Amino acid sequence: MELEKIPVGILGATGMVGQQYISLLNNHPWFEVRYAAASPRSAGKKYSEAVYGRWHIASNALAANYADHVGNIVVEDANDVSRAAAAFKKGNCSFVFSALEMSKDETSALEEEYAAAGIPVISNASAHRWTSDVPVLIAEINPDHADIIPIQKKKHGWERGFITVKPNCSIQSYMKPLHALAAAGYPARRLIVNTMQAVSGAGYPGVSSLDMIDNIVPYIGGEEEKSENEPLKIFGSIESGVFKNAELPQISAHCNRVPVVDGHTACISLEFDGKKPSLGEIKAIWAAYKGLPQDADFPSAPKQPIIYREENDRPQPRKDRDADKAMAVVIGRLRPCNVFDIRFTALSHNTVRGAAGGGILSAELLKYKGYL
Amino acid sequence: MELEKIPVGILGATGMVGQQYISLLNNHPWFEVRYAAASPRSAGKKYSEAVYGRWHIASNALAANYADHVGNIVVEDANDVSRAAAAFKKGNCSFVFSALEMSKDETSALEEEYAAAGIPVISNASAHRWTSDVPVLIAEINPDHADIIPIQKKKHGWERGFITVKPNCSIQSYMKPLHALAAAGYPARRLIVNTMQAVSGAGYPGVSSLDMIDNIVPYIGGEEEKSENEPLKIFGSIESGVFKNAELPQISAHCNRVPVVDGHTACISLEFDGKKPSLGEIKAIWAAYKGLPQDADFPSAPKQPIIYREENDRPQPRKDRDADKAMAVVIGRLRPCNVFDIRFTALSHNTVRGAAGGGILSAELLKYKGYL
Amino acid sequence: MELEKIPVGILGATGMVGQQYISLLNNHPWFEVRYAAASPRSAGKKYSEAVYGRWHIASNALAANYADHVGNIVVEDANDVSRAAAAFKKGNCSFVFSALEMSKDETSALEEEYAAAGIPVISNASAHRWTSDVPVLIAEINPDHADIIPIQKKKHGWERGFITVKPNCSIQSYMKPLHALAAAGYPARRLIVNTMQAVSGAGYPGVSSLDMIDNIVPYIGGEEEKSENEPLKIFGSIESGVFKNAELPQISAHCNRVPVVDGHTACISLEFDGKKPSLGEIKAIWAAYKGLPQDADFPSAPKQPIIYREENDRPQPRKDRDADKAMAVVIGRLRPCNVFDIRFTALSHNTVRGAAGGGILSAELLKYKGYL
Amino acid sequence: MELEKIPVGILGATGMVGQQYISLLNNHPWFEVRYAAASPRSAGKKYSEAVYGRWHIASNALAANYADHVGNIVVEDANDVSRAAAAFKKGNCSFVFSALEMSKDETSALEEEYAAAGIPVISNASAHRWTSDVPVLIAEINPDHADIIPIQKKKHGWERGFITVKPNCSIQSYMKPLHALAAAGYPARRLIVNTMQAVSGAGYPGVSSLDMIDNIVPYIGGEEEKSENEPLKIFGSIESGVFKNAELPQISAHCNRVPVVDGHTACISLEFDGKKPSLGEIKAIWAAYKGLPQDADFPSAPKQPIIYREENDRPQPRKDRDADKAMAVVIGRLRPCNVFDIRFTALSHNTVRGAAGGGILSAELLKYKGYL
Question: What value of ipTM does the predicted structure carry?
Fold first, then answer.
């Protein structure tokens, strides 16, 4: 049965998100890592050598380590697309997850090269999030946005390749709760969001320990804009072959870095755009929330995408981030807001649901829809 | 000159806030600690013995340790008001700072006993914050609220004693900026506040380390209500001998505990009640802000009560909490809000400005006004 | 097949170690939790209610949460041994794991009462560690010490009950490496050990966050004595029906508390008692080390009890504590010592291998040997 | 009187140790910063601009911020020695503190260039620690080592310039206690040292926060060798114009990085070389310990170089590192060692006593001796 798995490649395979992909794909029922590319200094080394002394995933944690066959893969130079094309021909790289850590322009151009070479790219990078025909996918929320792929391919003249991206990790905790409410007839008009984000979001070495012992940092470059704008594209629609943003909700974000390894927490005050559900209704809506990943039983889908905890001091990153394979959003403290309608606290695992796990779920969606 | 200092007592002298009082009053030009009371288990011991192995103030930090004469004070039982009355007669206790750590009802009753016995009480406890004739003082903002003291004394038949309190530490970071703006003609209508509060706010042992390593806790019992309501009393007025709350601003608070030793940080989104100043005007207003403590040059007054930092990643608790003897508010990140008018981040040292330092500043105000 | 599992009880079921037992025993192939006892204030509540708001195990971490049937168990008063005896008669409590958090004398007496009532006690408490006929078991090292059980039973006139204990969590990281070397003919004469211990070792709330942010504490009450003396009993022998301590190795321990959630790290300098192996030999000895748990394939046995990592900066608590179900010791940095013969760093998970996991492995040993 | 202060320069003025120098020299009675040099990217900027957004010293902490005149100094390129020579001629740079962060070879060569250009160099870098005629100074221990300076100058043909260095920060906590004992007739033969070192020792950004949340790292490159060997040079003597190492004590060091901002803690087991003092004698020896800095009352000298605390859980980095201007060593837990003679725990502030403060104290020594 092994032989029938879809062979996948990882771009940026030795970085932190790349390692997370390798870990989460160990024993994946549909996909198997057969190709790994990284910066020139890793190229030519066996994967196990390339990450020696730089492997950041805790052993035997949620994610396994990498399988032996992955350790023996010889890492390629990610800049050399012809290597991936050759691997594709040999049946070793049907598509790639991109966890490239380059400049925006370099990433943008390189991902297009892969697509042009016939290799679909499911990207964690932010480079193409505002490209008008590239979908920003959250599998439960906007699976239909994947249907821009034929348009995208046609526009570029790409026969087999295409590009999809995932949104910023900071919005994962509030997008599904918002979507659940909107789908039940209670769209949000305005929200003020305060995030307390984990250091793993900045990669390795990322944030200095001198900034994270007995301290918080009330600023993360570019994060507030992403937290405010990306939801509008995800809630938007395809019109005339390009994405048109939703007009609401209006979001104001304060993004803070806190001394937490994994798990972004957000405190949200929300005003509805129209009628207002009761707190009881909201909890019922969240508990019942399901999307295509659940309906079609994708391997990486959380059984319950939104988990509500009644204890007054939850969610907490260390205790709740791993809920349901670290793919669920955990919410708590729903109560009336003194200024808007409601307020609550929501948590999502930033390197799993917000990065590699979310990318894998997108790939599962794309396979289900026949694009892979 | 030593002899002319006002002799003061500390109730709850061995606890965390009590220790902070002892430290900050070392070499104070107006006050000298001559009386210390605590729980019965400390009573009868020399102060130095009572805090042996439990002294939490870092040596040679901002605050000094305690003077030798304080170490030799024999601790009294705080429940025995007659001891304080006797000390008063001997000239050793002209008034007390209360840092009692009892239940609300016990504290409330005991502080009244001290007042009835002729000992003015400047309290850090929350017990009397909503007593209608007890002022909640922030020396820069509502020094005139002290003028309810004669009414309070008369009502209770107290000849010399009275009670004043300080507000909750969580509001210190945003009260002065709001007051400065209101005083300049720009009152706030609504604000949504997200606090990230230091563990010292919970006393010792307080918050478990298991909750503060690789974690945050999105809940502090009672803190959100205090953060929303106390500002209305402080911005209120004396009418018919009691305090009448202000009607605005409407505040919605999310209070979180984060792994920081000292320094409460707040992220604020604010809507003005009427005309809106430019960002430049706001910075100018904050820079020029002064109150009675500055005008009259009180010993514990920060020279500049509001410090604005232009760097995009400030204020940070570890780097900014000690600004101007830990008595200033440090603000940064002023920018337009996507939902309200403006947003910014503000920081205040919770155990100095928000506790013992704030209490001492109130005492300086009361002495200046002739109430001590 | 469910029905054939051995029904077990947990004393102190709502505490931190008790919760760890409940988690680790979820889906255990041999044992099933059917009885839970705790302090009087939990007695009478369903287990799920008793731990509501106080459940410390991260969801979906290594350990699962508890099964539904455990949540529905009505908690009994641990002081009332007759309840356990009744549960035994009903087939719900064949033996107990003791995670009692009482004084040493109370624990000692109560555990004896359970044994006298016919309920074998596998204890995490330290009360009986120096009782002359109670074995301190580490399943790989001294499985034969269990054979004092018939002597113990006879001495007390206990028909079915008996008591075994596990050693202190601080010694787990160096006992197996020492045993492996001694078994290969290289016993240690002297060692100087420096531990850096996790806060979970102190239970909940345990260590104050004020002591663990930007700080370490160079003292843990009683820990150094345990770290020095318990190894001598474990390496000792049964003579005339009681344990006789080994004479070596001589150990000097410095025990420190550090801001780590789980995982005790020890730095060890060691002098051999006689001939000295090469570093290569030592690594080979450790890699080949196996004991009865591995030979008999106990469910909780790590496949490789000692894992050596070649990277120069390992083991690290966060990355290595969970190795092999958190039951393995992870070692690194083996190098010559400038003063003794060798030095190295070793790590063990204190609440799994060092507490509940170690207790379960002992129970597996006792069942294998026919004592349960 | 200002005009009579000796004008000093800082090499590497914008880095972490450079900033510490600037802070500690604010209002220094003998020295005044008039020259600042750093990497080419800072050259040409005003100092206040060069460190904007990168100033790491907490405001109003022990150290002040920098004086206005320092903020206005135009930073020079540290590689261009002619700039310093010109500043010397103008009376702005009588000598330099070197906090260069270059490779060992580059630092070594550049510091020699400064010396050759007539600028004495008091260096924090490790480059020249093993140069046979460069003294490694701890002002209390080996002030006479400064007397190699004339020999050094003569050998190189330097008329005015010379080089001195300070030892590694990891040894500061145990060198003075060892010296005190040796001076009292109780030299140490062997010691095993375990350090738990603060992250500021690695500079900024230095250690990743991902390695310091819920974690420790049992390795610091090169640190153990320095901790073992540098003491032998410091305890050594000048023979035939070069330093000859002492033969004892033999030291074995385990160096660990822990989540502490400032303050290196060491646990020490010690064997005496000959007669053994009682614990009481040792405490008396430490309490009475003084050196030239105390006798001659140098401005940066701690009044009591060794402070012993009787509490069983001290020293702790956060509470004790700032003792006596952060220039004292704080010791606790003196007790018999189970393997050697005694054991104890010692703490020293690594960026003050172990870096800039130690350098300034050396400069005070050199001025006192007439070398500056």
Answer: 0.95
